[in-house]
Amino acid sequence: MKELITITKIMFVEKRDIIISIFCGFIAGTTAIGLFALSGYLISKSALVPPIYTLMILVASVKMLGIISALSRYGERYFSHRGTFTMLSHLRVSFYERLEPLAPSIFQRYRSGDLLSRIVGDVETLQNFFLRVFYPPIVLMFVFLSTIFFTAFFSIEVTLIILVGFILTTFIFPAIIAFKQRKVERRVRESRGELSTEISEFLFGFRDLKIYQKLEIKESRLRHSADVYLKEQEHESVHNLLSESANTFLSLVVSVTVLAFGAYLVATEQLDGIFLAMLVMVSLTAFENTTSMSVFPSYLEDSRQAATRLNNVVRTEQEYETPKKSKEKLSITKSPYIRVNEVSFAFPDETRDTLSDISFTLPPGSKTAVVGPSGSGKSTLMQLLLQMYPVNQGEIYINNQSLNSLSQESIWKNTNVVLQKNHFFYGTIRQNLMFAKNGLTDEEMKNILEKVKLSHFTLNDQVLEKGENLSGGEKQRLAIARVLLKKAPIWLLDEPTSSIDALTEKYIYNYLFKEAKKDTVVLISHRLTGLESMDQIIVMESGRIVEVGTFDELMEKKGYFYEMKQIEQSVF
Q1: Per-residue pLDDT at 519 exceeds 80
Q2: 128 & 236 share domain
Q3: Which residues span the membrane (predicted)?
Q4: How far apart are CA 348 and CA 319, in angstroms?
Q5: Where are the alpha helices (DSSP H) in 268-377?
């Protein structure tokens, strides 16, 4: 049950509500038993025609217990649910705080649909942890201890019968159910994750499925996943109903045993007959509380599985992320010196190195191009410079500070980044540009749009989700506009103009390098044209650096870069 330890710690942040709800639950349970016990005694006593004041006292006591039971039951519901909602709030915040540093590497290990299923569905599942798992056994234990203590004054034999029934319905039977429940709950959760994944892929890939006329195949897989999930839910419901029915039947057997054995004790004059109805009512009412234990194994396994799935997402943080203690902040006002020293890297769960023994330097204010065929490790190198992944071997330094000793946020704050795929949020052009930095004026944003040849847009123009109403070139120019507004001293550009025509590309590069004249720039590119002005060119192949030099030096060398250039000229 170690998976639930974290959830329990988060739950006890609101220990005041927990203690009050347990107290109210105990009062509600004991007063309910007292109410029915007194009712049984009242019925028996009335048959003997007692004095009227005796009946008045008994009736008044029954009413008082009914009022107390109702008020305490309300308090129990109020404080237990308030504590649960607060616990869920703390759980979401705690999980997000542990999950957020793992992005974007988390997407290498989990499909988006499965991740969404865990974040939403599993967190919601844990709302039952306090109400159905942690809370009922504690209250039930206190209530039964009080009940056993009360019945012991009237009959030790009946007390033993109730105690045995309590052990059977609260411990032994739920343990048997829990053993069988684990497999059922795991299948339900796995089928739900599979369905969520199929739905997300279906929605994201709907256009491509239509184009390639594979929509029916994907729909059939989606229906199959939905059918499997429904069948597993049905199996789970049947299992829960069977458990609840069996537990109720067992409780009734105990109460019937109390009645039969109590009648025997009365017949043998070992028990006053006036107490028989009271003891039977005590048994019936007490074992009504054990109904919650019939579904206890289901909720316990459900909560354990949910906690396990959530912990599995974030437990690898220490394995894949650098330690977060004593992180320094990168503080620079001008272009830094960057050194990459014998760096090797492999993605999580991959045995093949994506980068091997990479070493180079980036002098302050230098302009460096990283070129090579697709899959040579250029984009991976950029991710390491952004500390999105920790290096497996070697070190990366910024002004003699190890990248591992710097916080990610401070690195990103001082870096202008254009990725191959840039995200655009639903809203307006203005809202998407405002991400660059605070305090931007409309005039500044309009000027930048003009510089990147997007003057046909207004700041109020709509941007759909993921920029669906923008062309590939417009997305790249809008991304470049954002970094031009940010004005950080380090530039990391990964194929920033791959979808832009040659004339516009030349114009934008001229303006970009003018703005970054004193900054350190790293440009990743498949194109080899326009690299004559770069201070150095790093040529990569299969995760290794094969050549380094200026454009003229590499052309004179007639090595790998020269061959790439000749091929490009012959093709284009």
Answers
A1: yes
A2: yes
A3: 20-44, 50-72, 133-154, 160-179, 249-267
A4: 9
A5: 276-288, 291-294, 296-314, 317-320
Domain boundary among 318, 349, 377: 318
Looking at the structure, tell me whether residues 267 and 414 fall in a common domain: no
Which domain does 153 fall in, by range?
A: 2-318
d(CA 470, CA 117): 30
Beta bridge partners of 539: 371, 547
The band of 137, judged by pLDDT with boundaries at 50, 70 and 90, is confident
**What are the backbone angles phi and psi of residue 570, rounded to the nearest 5°?**
-70, -30
- DSSP letter assigned to residue 406: B
Average pLDDT in the chain: 85
Q: How many CA atoms lie within 13 A of 521 on its CB side?
A: 25
Kindly state whether residue 87 falls inside one of the protein's structural domains. Answer: yes
Segment 218-244 shows an average pLDDT of 85
Under DSSP, the state recorded for 521 is E
| Tally of structural domains, the chain | 2
Cα–Cα distance, 129 to 151 (Å, whole number): 32
| 318 pLDDT more than 60 | no
Q: Is residue 42 part of a domain?
A: yes
Q: Which backbone phi and psi does 369 adopt, to 5 degrees? A: -105, 135
Bridge partners, 371 (sequence order): 525, 539
Q: Which residues of 458-469 are buried (b: 16+ CB within 10 A; e: fewer)?
A: eeeeebeeebee
pLDDT at 339 (0 to 100): 92
- Residue 122 CB neighbours (<10 A): 23
CATH number at residue 119: 1.20.1560.10
222-228: long-range contacts (C-beta < 8 A, 24 or more apart)?
222/195, 222/198, 225/191, 225/194, 225/195, 225/198, 226/195, 228/191, 228/194, 228/195
pLDDT of residue 315: 65
DSSP 209-276: HHHTT-HHHHHHHHHHHHHHHHHHHHHHHHHHHHHHHHHHHHHHHHHHHHHHHHHHHHHTTSS-GGGH
Pair 351, 289 in one domain: no
Q: What is the pLDDT of residue 400?
A: 84
- Region 55-82: mean pLDDT is 90
Q: Is the predicted pLDDT of residue 320 greater than 50, yes or no? A: no
Nearest to 114 by CA among 6, 193, 25, 8: 193
Q: Do residues 275 and 422 both lie within one domain?
A: no
Q: What is the pLDDT of residue 83?
A: 85
User: Would the pTM of this model clear 0.90, i.e. be above it?
Assistant: no
